[in-house]
From TrEMBL:
GO biological-process terms attached to the record: carboxylic acid metabolic process
InterPro entries tied to this protein: Class-IV_PLP-Dep_Aminotrnsfr (IPR050571), P-loop_NTPase (IPR027417)
Family: Belongs to the class-IV pyridoxal-phosphate-dependent aminotransferase family.
Organism classification: Bacteria, Pseudomonadati, Pseudomonadota, Gammaproteobacteria, Cellvibrionales
Superkingdom assignment: Bacteria
Protein name: HAD family hydrolase
Native source species: Halioglobus maricola
Length: 236
């Protein structure tokens, strides 16, 4: 599942992990991303200590380590993947892209980080990876929009499972217990407070967030990329 930050991606991970047949992997390239970029993210030291900071080693781990469940769900952040990286490891996997309106992403990200940039929110990178993975796999990945999920989680998750040729345990995927998980990344204390209190997908907010001018400009600049994938999404 490929998304940018602040995009119900952790709630979606909860949904899949609550299936009895599925285990999850939480943002396996985060430490490699921080190491390569030198960025000073919250809990940087803890993240670097918890994961490999070598891209090749992370690929080896997620490709070669035996999966003990029928399904494995990988929560992947598009901005963690550098341009030019060998993505051939993706060929044997099924892919889905989780998208969200740029203004909503930026408004949420700005509450957790002091600055917001195009690279940090991963929307441009999401389109690039969609095209690259489409070519590698020989077909377009499934696309779902977070707004559609929040409006109708039952309908969208049913369609998603059908598109992936999986059965859909509705009760398990729509409700989960509160709390932290052993599978949560080292960054959870900073980023996961809301989802730790959740028991399901949140309510859809119909109002548009108010952004300061430079962030409104960024949202408008990101909208064409978002719309490229939005046009390919599963329809609610």
């Amino acid at each position: 599942m490929w998304s940018g930050p602040r995009n119900i991606s952790t709630a979606m991970m909860r949904s899949w992990e609550n299936r009895p047949d599925c285990t999850v992997v939480d943002e396996p390239f985060y430490a490699a991303y921080l190491s390569a970029t030198g960025l000073d993210h919250p809990m940087r030291a803890e993240i670097l200590a918890a994961q490999s900071s070598e891209y090749a080693e992370v690929v080896r781990q997620i490709s070669a380590v035996p999966v003990t469940s029928a399904l494995q769900y990988q929560k992947q952040m598009t901005h963690h993947i550098p341009r030019g990286m060998d993505m051939s490891w993706c060929k044997t996997l099924k892919h889905c892209f989780l998208i969200r309106d740029p203004a909503a992403v930026i408004a949420s990200y700005a509450k957790k980080m002091p600055t917001v940039t195009e690279d940090a929110i991963g929307i441009t990178r999401q389109v690039e990876l969609f095209e690259e993975i489409s070519e590698i796999c020989g077909c377009e990945p499934v696309v779902i929009d977070s707004q559609d999920v929040l409006r109708n989680p039952l309908g969208i998750l049913r369609q998603l499972c059908e598109a992936l040729q999986l059965h859909f345990p509705a009760e398990a995927m729509l409700k989960w217990p509160t709390g932290r998980r052993n599978s949560d990344g080292a960054w959870a204390p900073h980023w996961y407070h809301n989802v730790e209190q959740s028991t399901g997908f949140g309510e859809y907010a119909a109002t548009s967030p108010e952004l300061r001018e430079e962030y409104a400009v960024l949202a408008r600049a990101m909208d064409p990329a978002y719309r490229q994938l939005w046009q390919r999404r599963l329809l609610p």
